[in-house]
Design brief:
Layout: E1 2-3, E2 6-8, E3 11-13, E4 20-24, E5 31-36, H1 40-55, H2 57-61, H3 64-80, H4 82-93, H5 97-106, H6 108-117, E6 125-126, E7 133-141, E8 144-148, H7 154-168, E9 171-175, H8 182-193, E10 201-203, H9 208-217, E11 221-227, H10 230-241, E12 246-250, E13 256-259, H11 265-277, E14 289-293, H12 297-309, H13 329-344, E15 348-351, E16 368-371, H14 378-381, E17 388-394, H15 397-405, E18 409-410, E19 412-416, H16 420-429, E20 434-437, E21 452-453, E22 456-457, H17 462-467, E23 470-478
Parallel strand pairs: 1-5, 8-9, 8-11, 9-10, 11-12, 13-14, 13-19, 14-17, 16-17, 19-20
Antiparallel strand pairs: 2-3, 4-5, 6-7, 7-23, 12-22, 15-16, 18-21
Pfam family, one: Aldedh
Active site: 250
Keywords: Oxidoreductase
Length: 491
């Protein structure tokens, strides 16, 4: 069983307290690696290393073009190690190798994009209205960044958070989920191989109350970026506010996938299945509410269930597996609890509805679909984070918008229609950070991603992401000669 160390100041180190956490393979249920159980002292060591790199040494004096070239080199190393990194993620979180390998192979694009952007973060000369003044702006790195990532796509979240942070000139301390830390620790070695100076990228593993809280409260951390639940995000937001830290949060969702009667029904059915059963439903953008126009609801539901029944459960390493295990035992129990809550509230289970028997690990849930769901049911309002779909009917656009927006969340939405006017109207009316039309779960390093309402604050990916890690400084230079006429008034 492999034993990992924290990655601090360019080296793997043992935890201060000498404690370890077994990393369990969700498919087999067996421990396959050990990670450090960090503490506040470990978090402090990592922040001190990041702060030193931020203000001293080669990173502090490095120009943006050189920083960008190192990031490009890191992208090449990720590509060369994609298969190995993807297999580590599958052992750690149980998601399909097909999905993880696709993500890791696409991952270098973030490092190439933001590496290329590093030396293009230009300020501006302002044609100021004050006489005898030269005014300009400059963009400077915010400082040390604490990046707290989730267990469902660790390396993707590192790319989303750390690539723009490094492009801006920041240094980072990553605290991955204790359920899936190994791929992040493997990745850390590639940063050193790429030539990124010691202390720029650090990883401390352990539990949130011990390591995560210490990072959020640390006086030398300037920015916190977090992916996870809205409840945890709210606590981090309040905690960070005590020291006026910058914060960006990518949180949960209860995304509507809205199907109109003029859609390509085959494409819509496939899109709905992908939106909820891909990744075993363990994704913040899961289209967990399918809103179907009543004129086609019965026919659509029948065909949806037919396709859902074909999903193959099993070993996530195999190419023909569609549904893998739930990553964590607490999440597995939560999903089953929500299924029972839905049944008790009167929702009608038409597919699945319980644990999948006779599979290793004991953490498989049957792909589940509920009909007769009303918008006020808990199954339609609360994030399940599993392969559980609610079907809700609607009559017209106005009702679809009303139901779609009737949620505390606002991360994503899907619309299925052949009417371009309706597509434009719906994309404007839906309160979501991302609206997909005739597709679902598409992401790119070029497109901003983030949520509204309880789904978060700030954006990841795209040019907007790098602004999350920059401070704008205004510089005034007087070109006047002599003394101001009246030094007691504002100029």
């Amino acid at each position: 069983m492999k034993t990992y160390g924290h990655f601090i100041d360019g080296a793997y180190v043992e935890p201060t307290g000498g404690k370890w956490i077994d990393s369990l393979n969700p498919y087999t249920g067996e421990a396959w690696a050990r990670i450090p159980q960090g503490c506040a002292q470990d978090a402090d060591r990592a922040v001190q290393a990041a702060a030193k790199a931020m203000h001293e040494g080669p990173w502090a004096g490095m120009n943006a073009s050189t920083r960008g070239k190192l990031m490009l080199r890191l992208g090449e190393l990720i590509a060369a190690n994609a298969e190995r990194l993807a297999e580590v993620e599958v052992r750690d979180n149980g998601k399909l190798l097909a999905e993880m390998l696709g993500q890791v192979r696409y991952n270098p694009e973030w490092w190439r994009y933001f590496g290329g952007l590093a030396d293009k973060l230009e300020g501006a000369v302002v044609p100021i209205d004050k006489p005898d003044m030269f005014a300009f702006t400059r963009h400077e790195p915010v400082g040390v960044v604490a990046a707290l990532t989730a267990w469902n796509s660790p390396l993707l979240f590192i790319a989303w958070k750390c690539a723009p942070a490094l492009a801006a000139g920041c240094t980072v301390v990553v605290k991955p989920s204790e359920f899936a830390s190994c791929s992040t620790l493997e990745f850390a070695a590639l940063t050193k191989e790429a030539g990124i100076p010691d202390g720029v990228f650090n990883v401390v593993t352990g539990y949130g109350p011990e390591v995560g809280s210490a990072l959020v409260e640390h006086r030398d951390v300037a920015k916190v970026t977090f992916t996870g639940s809205d409840a945890t995000g709210a606590r981090i937001y309040a905690q960070a506010a005590k020291t006026m830290k910058r914060v960006s949060l990518e949180l949960g969702g209860k995304s509507p996938n809205i199907v109109f009667d003029d859609c390509d029904i085959d494409a819509a059915i496939a899109g709905v299945i992908s939106g909820i059963f891909a990744a075993t439903g363990q994704t913040c953008i899961a289209g967990s509410r399918v809103l179907v126009q009543n004129s086609i609801k019965e026919r659509f539901t029948e065909r949806l269930v037919e396709l859902g029944r074909t999903a193959r459960k099993g070993d996530p390493m195999l190419p023909d597996t569609n549904i893998g295990p739930v990553t964590t035992a607490p999440q597995y129990r939560k999903i089953l609890d929500y299924i029972e809550i839905a049944k008790a509230e009167g929702a009608r289970c038409i597919l699945g509805g319980g644990p999948a028997p006779d599979l290793p690990g004991g953490q498989f849930v049957e792909p589940t679909i509920f009909a007769d769901v009303t918008p006020d049911m808990r199954i339609a309002r609360e994030e399940v984070f599993g392969p559980v779909l609610s079907i809700i009917g609607f009559d017209d656009e106005a009702e679809a918008v009303r139901i779609g927006n009737d949620t505390i969340y606002g991360l994503a939405a899907g619309v299925w229609t052949k009417d371009i006017g309706r597509a434009v109207r719906m994309s404007a009316a839906l309160k979501a950070g991302t609206v997909w039309v005739n597709t679902y779960r598409a992401v790119s390093y070029m497109m901003p991603f983030g949520g509204m309402k309880h789904s978060g604050i700030g954006r990841e990916s795209g040019i907007e992401a790098v602004r999350e890690y920059l401070e704008t400084k205004s510089v005034w230079i007087s070109t006047a000669q002599g003394v101001p006429a009246n030094p007691f008034v504002m100029r």
